[in-house]
Amino acid sequence: MRQVRFIALAALVFVGIATAAGPVHAGALKQVPFVYEPDGAPSQVYLAGQFNNWSTDATPMEEVDGRFEVTLLLPIGRYQYKFVADGNWITDETADDFHPDGYGGQNSVVVVDERFEDVALERGDGVITTFQLGHGRHAWEVSVARDGTVAFRTRVWTGDISDAALVIEGARGSTSVPMERVDSDGLFDYLEAEVRTAATGTRFDYAFTLTDGDAELWLGPGGFAETGEAAGTFVFDAEAFPVFATPDWAKDGIFYQIFPERFANGDASNDQDFSEWYYEGLTDLPASGKTNDVYFHFVDDWYDVEGLSKSPYRTDGKPDWNSFYGGDIAGVRENLDYLADLGVTVIYFNPLFESQSNHKYDAVSYMRLDPHFGTNQEFADFVDAAHERGIRVIMDLAYNHTGHTFWAFQDTRERGPESPYWDWYEWREWPLPGEGVNPPPNAKDYYDCWWGFGWMPNLNFDLARDNPDEQGVKDITDAQVNWPVVEHLLAATVYWLTEADVDGFRLDVAGEVPFWFWELFRERVRTVDPDAYIVGELWGPSPEWVNGRYYDAVMNYAYFRDPVLGFIASGDMDAAEFDRALAPGRLIYPDEGVRAQMNLLGSHDTPRFLTNCGGDVDRLKLAMLFSMTYVGAPTIYYGDEIAMEGGGDPDCRRPFRWTWETEPVRVDVHDHVRRLAAIRTSHPLFSRGDFETLVSDGRVFAYRRSLDDDVAYVVLNAGPTAVSVEVPVVEDHGSVVEALSGSIVPVIAGPAGASVAVELEPMSGAVLLPEGD
């Protein structure tokens, strides 16, 4: 008898659930109820946790007799979660366990084990499980390539169905396109079918069919049904789905982030002398030689970094945020050959604009290079020199806010409402109290500023809304656009594209600027340079931003750095947890965005990776190996390739250690990174190829990268003891070569298929290539 399992336990979840690798076997998947009994009467409650990427709206809970309930299907394991009641995050005090949430509180933990009721999934049994399946028409589900190919995706439970198809309803009738599995998070298989708009038109109807045994279901906007008529059809309209193509050079790139004030001093004549008006009164110490106020000063010794962890000028034990060391563009240009030899193909600069601070996120002007870095022409010449070596250059744009020294803000500060720039900012009270350059201690009472820091007043994009209400607006027709601000920012962007020939932009605090502005930004940038790269600074899951309207990619904190910290740096994750933490990063973005992600181990905003490793260089080397062989663009924070350490800001911004060649440990790490970069560059499969998890057992993680007929196998041992790992391989390899050592490893034929036995020391890895590649 035909069976269909319609489990109506919760609303559809359209974001990939991270879970253990491997197929879901009978007895491994459980029905897990969650119950919240509120003290009051919240209007809406959601369940947020590791199972839905901490989404605050993906999993609503249903009110039943004054309490809120929802049931999820989850494999055996541990999952952190919280309730979100009317926007308030609430710990479930009845949970099995608890885990620090990173904000001084605790996440609840549910331990999914044999206590919970089984959900058996079996291919060919005529039962199709539909719970948590759907098609939300997000960018990862419908993505249009530059050649007009449209990729349609949906997902099914792993091991549950035998076939799936995309059904196109066109003028010439119905066409069924088989769907193929493109990836898996261990719980769901992600299926894809591609069609060409040239063959089907720019507007057509479509639906999906799922088949298992003698059961068939249709999926349309009406949900799942046994007939296409009952399910209905989705509508594809090219107007609603802009082409999403990311630059090939970014996908193939090896990025190198430079904090310009700390990389190299190539021109002592432009060293910081504090001659600008905005340093007046801020460069002298009192007679005691101590102050906890702002004190700008130059450090004569490039390698004197003690103040970056504890300032010698402060009495409160805090670090020195206002020191300068003299790094400049001339210094980077002198070391372009060093970067090229390392394998770098893209330089990402932290802000270069004239600014009062050393970090330059508080612009004085968006049209002028900081004079202590060089001139605009020197920077343009530098970009030319980088391009000659095959190195691209992207700039950091902080468009959410300016500095309090910005020319427009200074005009409003002096002239108040009579200033033509008054509406560029959101003033609450004027004039400012007191005298001098510094903002008042309570600056946020006078004007809107970034996280309350008066040094960085927020720009006013929408005249009808206060910040942050303007941030989530997507449709420009819903905004009262502050066009003078918008046009100034777009003009500054075009200036650097045309006058300096930069190759793209990293967007600071990108989520705090309205969506509609970034849509205008992308259109303007791509009009000037169709091959420019746009990457946003977003720390969490960001599927709304990565598409043909906004960004090519994001800084991959959520689905690269955080999992690597857990698996390699701290050892808090085992391989299965690592695998499921990585998986959403390949699944909630279109493929074009996945391959252009900026995969970083650390940045100017985080402790250095080696410091997070407790100084264990082997962990750093293993993380670099993973970075260079995983999906997405590896990103080196300057100095990580020579084992630099550093705590939180500003200690992570130490001057580059140019004496590294005299220290064997630093030389070893540098040579390791250089070899890895060469391997990645020589084998396009690492930047363009498919990914498949092969082993996730204990502290061992192995995966396969493949592109057409090329294949590579990578094995990581993140454990404290040596291991022997049997890795399944494609059968036609007689032997494989370990790319780092050159050793030959034979392929062994066995009843379960071919494999190689890899011996790994603690905290080490191997890159296996078929012999001759």
Features:
single chain; 773 residues; alpha+beta; eight-stranded parallel beta sheet; six-stranded antiparallel beta sheet; 17 helices; 37 strands; 26% strand; globular; disordered N terminus
For the record, give the distance between the C-alpha atoms at the N and C termini, rounded to a whole number.
Answer: 52 Å
Please give the share of residues in helix: 10-25%
Largest sheet, described in full? 8 strands, parallel
How many E strands? Answer: 37
Strand content: 25-35%
- Which regions contain 5 or more consecutive residues with pLDDT less than 50? 1-27
Based on Cα principal axes, name the global outline: globular
Mean pLDDT: 93
Folded structure, characterized:
There is one protein chain. The chain is globular. The strands form eight sheets. It has an eight-stranded parallel sheet. Strands 12, 13, 16, 17, 18 and 19 form a six-stranded antiparallel sheet that branches. By secondary structure, it is of the alpha+beta class. It starts with 28 loop residues before the first strand and ends with a strand. The protein contains 17 helices and 37 strands. Mean pLDDT is 93; it is low at 1-27. Helix 15 (617-629) packs parallel to helix 16.
